[in-house]
């Protein structure tokens, strides 16, 4: 009470209180003040002259752990609060920043307790209601110009059905959360999460002005946002300040804030390497990691601090990748120029940080890591120099069997080592993978299996498809089927639907100017789109069956985004799914009857459509017949009783002139 200051009735909207500062003695007072001033100067806000006050305890002669800062305007104070509240300061302090007016309001709380008003019960939005659709349809979102629309994919009626549409729903882009519970929209004040099956009302807002990028953790527990404050002078790159915030999705609480120059959040380039933080596999969202120069920083979400309070030092590390299901982090260290240190791929178990497997690689020019969706395998594409001159390279694979004892590693070389590897993709939830290799425009496509009846523990080739017109692979989410695509973003748009179980082509089609291909989450349908980002004409989307039959198409001017709504994993166990599959005939009668009713309805609609077309044709024909009869009478009146004259045509040819000229010929 001795330290309370009497305040007048004036407003203090331009004053903030910064709490959770380090408690230091007078010998470090100026250093702490300088660090605080530097933090706020980086934000572009100006502290008033004599606008900084950090109280000192007269008994201990140390600071009290908080300070008061006065800015020129309330807007600057509000910006300073938003930018630094929850941000890390030093090694172990997380700042708590409040407006001074809020502190004063809390000091004036009544001493007598008053019971809160009981609000009437309002049921929460059912985020999974759309999964209970009786027709088992899936939803997708499209963006056309300033319009955003969510639709049902109604293949029974061979069309899409609008669910919700809104103009200027977002100011940048939209994206689904990983489990499909939310539609994320971006706005100048921050990010909004919308949910439901039809209304898509905003459920939560997360404040981060001028946000540019967002990422949602795999279990939808956390939201990561990014904003880059550009300098007033474009040539002053050092003044570009970036800010990353991590929010709790359900509570909206800011859990952690990271600030620094924009260059600190980029890896090997001028633009941000998004996502900066990579989440560990699984839905518990326990860990997330960040790659920095010679350092891998892994954080745990219980306290949002570094595991073991320190980062892992890994010299020259350039890439990290989490297992999709386990807390295993794969990292790649390239070969050093002097050749004294080979390239290395290592698997790190978290949170113990124990290296459970590693492989040294020699004469390596580059690597790329591919996890199988269940985390059973890790394929590392290795590009090696073919000679000491390092003028040419060849590629192969190092495949880690992650969930087997001692994590054995297999080396896979293509039949022709000099083939260029154009694309690689694992079969989702399966044990097969596909590789496009060779020379464009007619490379080969090979399929391999990690286990077969003859070789249960060794990778073996299933088949090679020679001279295919393909440069990209798209597996069905349920496996078994794959699309070999060619010419995306170009003008060919050739698609080959292939059955890997039977090793047969089901269909080969062309989707002229297609720029995007995306399987629906059930693997029943495929969407292709022609977007305005590449082509200005014929924008729209096409819905195909899994076997390559075009079901319907919809033209949409200025279409530039198409995205299926993801589905969460099935709640049924593998045993229950096998049981349902065995007893599938019991359900067929019901669905066949429904399909039959739809087929009858479609035939009636088609019949009615043809009838209306015939009626329109007859009306048009009778109109012109009537007009012709009226003109016929007029023509007869003009001609009268005289006989029509007969006309004869004669062609006369006449020679006008003839001249000769000798042209000299030279070798």
From TrEMBL:
Sorted alphabetically, which keywords does the UniProt record give? Cytoplasm, Initiation factor, Protein biosynthesis, RNA-binding
- SUPFAM superfamilies to which the protein is assigned, alphabetical: DPP6 N-terminal domain-like, RNA-binding domain, RBD
Q: Where in the cell is it found?
A: Cytoplasm
Q: Mind naming one GO cellular-component term on file for this protein?
A: eukaryotic translation initiation factor 3 complex
Can you give the residue ranges of the RRM domain?
14-102
Specify where it is mainly localized.
Answer: cytoplasm
What does the record give under GO molecular function? Answer: RNA binding; translation initiation factor activity; translation initiation factor binding
**Coiled-coil blocks:** none
Q: What top-level branch of life does the organism fall under?
A: Eukaryota
Protein name, as recorded = RRM domain-containing protein
Q: Which organism is it from?
A: Eutrema salsugineum
What lineage does UniProt assign to this protein's organism? Answer: Eukaryota, Viridiplantae, Streptophyta, Embryophyta, Tracheophyta
